[in-house]
């Protein structure tokens, strides 16, 4: 009986790891695919991208946002501006509307004070991150010296303590990435609210699917951070 339970848990664990690896490795390709698809849908309502930005900027954001250009796939929000890539700015596609709506969503999050806690968390995470590798190295050196009895045996335990601290930092990094997914979800929810102002139900649905595939890339980033050590997925910086 117990044997079956243990085997069951083992199989379940294996399947979960496989699923996470699949998301880690293919979420960005999936996003690129969906982006291409959504770039080919024209918005039927006849509204232009620039007008959409102006309408939302005025209606929700006190006209406080400026649009600037950035590199492809690097669309982002920073206080006072949204940076958009050329292919997004130049087309009237649903991919463009979705991306811009999402970035405008960050604008509303910023206005409501929902972003500052997240940014502070990321900043702290980066500072913690500087200790990660040194702690592991100190842990290895102390553990080896303790094991070889070059230093007293308790050195081994101090070494293990440093490993534990490094592991704690790793957990913080994973948690911060997880919180980031929540922030992204919030921005997309605001974005969908903006899109509903100017688009048909069907169009909003396509935009929603596209934004979901974009969010999957953040899950991919979390799983890459967690599973980089398996060497079965690309490594991800834990502290970006
Ligand atoms: Zn975002």
Write the layout of secondary structure elements.
Layout (H helix, E strand, L loop, with lengths): L1 H39 L8 H12 L5 E4 L6 E3 L2 E4 L1 H5 L3 H18 L4 H32 L6 H45 L2 H27 L13
Parallel strand pairs: 1-3
Antiparallel strand pairs: 2-3
Helix pairs in contact: 1-7, 2-4, 4-6, 4-7, 5-6, 6-7
Bound molecules: zinc ion.
Write a structural description:
This protein has helices spanning 2-40, 49-60, 86-90, 94-111, 116-147, 154-198, 201-227; strands spanning 66-69, 76-78, 81-84. It is mainly α. The chain has one domain. A three-stranded mixed sheet has the order 1-3-2. Helix 5 runs antiparallel to helix 6. The protein is elongated, with a radius of gyration of 23 Å. The model has no long low-confidence stretch (mean pLDDT 87). Zinc ion binds at residues 102, 106, 184, 187.
Summarize the structure.
By secondary structure, the chain is mainly alpha-helical.
Q: How many discrete domains?
A: 1
Spell the H/E element sequence: HHEEEHHHHH
Structural class: mainly alpha
Strand order of the largest sheet: 1-3-2
Overall mean confidence score, pLDDT: 87
Task: From the alpha carbons, calculate the radius of gyration and give it in angstroms.
Answer: 23 Å
Oligomer: single chain
Q: Care to count the β-strands?
A: 3
Q: Please estimate the helix content.
A: over 70%
Bound small molecules, which ones?
zinc ion
């Amino acid at each position: 009986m117990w044997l079956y339970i243990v085997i069951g848990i083992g199989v379940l664990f294996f399947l979960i790891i496989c699923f996470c690896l699949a998301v880690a490795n293919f979420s960005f390709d999936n996003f690129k695919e969906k982006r291409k698809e959504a770039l080919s849908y024209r918005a039927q309502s006849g509204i232009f991208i620039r007008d959409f930005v102006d309408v939302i900027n005025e209606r929700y954001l006190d006209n406080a946002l400026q649009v600037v250009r950035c590199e492809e796939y690097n669309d982002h929000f920073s206080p006072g501006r949204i940076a958009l890539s050329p292919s997004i700015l130049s087309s009237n596609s649903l991919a463009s509307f979705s991306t811009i709506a999402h970035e405008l969503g960050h604008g509303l999050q910023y206005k409501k004070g929902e972003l500052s806690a997240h940014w502070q968390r990321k900043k702290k995470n980066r500072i913690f991150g500087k200790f990660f590798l040194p702690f592991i190295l100190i842990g290895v050196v102390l553990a080896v010296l303790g094991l070889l009895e070059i230093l007293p045996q308790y050195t081994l335990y101090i070494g293990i303590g440093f490993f534990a601290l490094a592991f704690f930092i790793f957990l913080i990094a994973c948690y911060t990435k997880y919180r980031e997914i929540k922030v992204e979800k919030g921005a997309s929810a605001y974005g969908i609210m903006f899109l509903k102002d100017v688009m048909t139900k069907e169009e909003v649905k396509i935009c929603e699917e596209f934004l979901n595939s974009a969010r999957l890339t953040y899950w991919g980033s979390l799983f890459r951070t967690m599973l980089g050590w398996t060497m079965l997925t690309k490594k991800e910086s834990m502290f970006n």
